Amino acid sequence: MTAAMTTQTELGSRLFTAMLAARARVAAQLGLSATDHHCAELVVHAGRPLTAGEIAALSGLSTGAITGVVDRLERAGYVRRIRDEHDRRRVLVEVTPVKGAQLRRAMNVLDTTVAQTLSGYSDADRARLEHCLTAWIRAL
């Protein structure tokens, strides 16, 4: 491994650690664990209610673990379980209006920080960064 690759790997590790720390701070401000916050964000990002199985697949957690996550999020008022209108046997998880708005505001703070950080870069540089990060994600 070259010195440049070692530096890039170290930077990737530091970025990952910084992102985890930032997300943990946001989760704590909302009174959530990092895992519960992440799962709630997945539902917000989906833009539609998700099944527990979909949340499990997106988060990498087991369906059993997701049951506990959804229970906690529901008790905290962030999500609610609803019946699928087309298949009454299916249960969906949706964000609640008030707590969903709180989640979106918290997500916007992180988005704004990233946007401000990248604002000094050219469109071409941002496109290269996006390409690099996307390739890195696919490789992992």
From TrEMBL:
Entry's Gene Ontology molecular function annotations: DNA-binding transcription factor activity
Protein name: HTH marR-type domain-containing protein
Domain HTH marR-type: 1-138
Gene Ontology terms describing biological process: response to stress
Organism lineage string: Bacteria, Bacillati, Actinomycetota, Actinomycetes, Pseudonocardiales
Originating organism: Kibdelosporangium phytohabitans
